[in-house]
């Protein structure tokens, strides 16, 4: 599933190609995504200028004068800028066409993504209104995590992956940040002291920032139909390395299921 760095990389990849352009036409080949695409999308968005492309958690927000197009990439979705309208493939479900003949194409093989039009203040949308702070802002720090975690018995990995606590800390980056912080993923959130939370918050920021800088772990190129692989996966210290040697101490990394997610940790480095 695309996580925050992949979504932010997507935002940065498409913004220069769509911001300031008027939507000339919307082609909807498959309206049955996670939620059906509303029939009002075409008349509402056609003819409007894309004023900005923003991100909230793992949601992309294409802002127009009268509303906002909220996009989620789901499990396998992607957005691509096509210089010309290429023949669509089986999983190319939505196109936004612009007067310069460029196209923003949404591809989603598993159809778990969404294309939702919202009129009014987007922060009040039901999918966004209860989200926690962005991890790369000053609002998120160790003191915030510590205060929210008191009397919480949930494992720390589940706690930091809860979007009501903080948005965008997906499985890959939770594994990495906990390893860098020396925190065992099963430790109860309420049993972690403030100094360790400060370290953890800083490492969450660091691992996400580093992943964004190199294009996440999936795609970097948004101006062709396929894209090129990102390179952050080459820097992963624990995720996907269960059974391999810890890069810090050579101890065999353990892999367990926690919250139905693969969780890899070092039994020596993480306590």
The CATH class designation of the largest domain is: Mainly Alpha
The CATH architecture of the largest domain can be named as Orthogonal Bundle
Give the strand order, joined by hyphens, for the main sheet: 1-6-7-5
Mean pLDDT value: 92
Pairing-aware structural class of the strands and helices? alpha+beta
> Ranges with pLDDT <50 over ≥5 residues?
224-229
- The best one-word shape is elongated
Computed over alpha carbons, the radius of gyration is: 20 Å
Number of strands: 10
Largest sheet: 4 strands, antiparallel
* Tally of discrete structural domains: 2
Helical stretch tally:
6
Helix content range: 10-25%
Termini separation: 28 Å
Quote the CATH topology of the largest domain: Helicase, Ruva Protein, domain 3
* Proportion in β-strands: 15-25%
Order of helices and strands: HEHEEEEEEEHHHHEE
Notes on the structure:
- The chain is an alpha+beta fold.
- It has two domains: 4-124, MutM-like, N-terminal (N-terminal domain of MutM-like DNA repair proteins), CATH 3.20.190.10; 142-265, Orthogonal Bundle (Helicase, Ruva Protein, domain 3).
- 24% of the residues lie in helices and 18% in strands.
- It has six helices and ten strands, in the order H-E-H-E-E-E-E-E-E-E-H-H-H-H-E-E.
- It has helices at 4-18, 41-45, 142-149, 156-160, 171-181, 194-213; strands at 25-28, 52-56, 59-63, 68-72, 78-82, 92-97, 103-107, 114-118, 254-258, 261-265.
- A four-stranded antiparallel beta sheet has the order 1-6-7-5.
- The two termini are 28 Å apart.
- Residues 224-229 have low confidence and may be disordered.
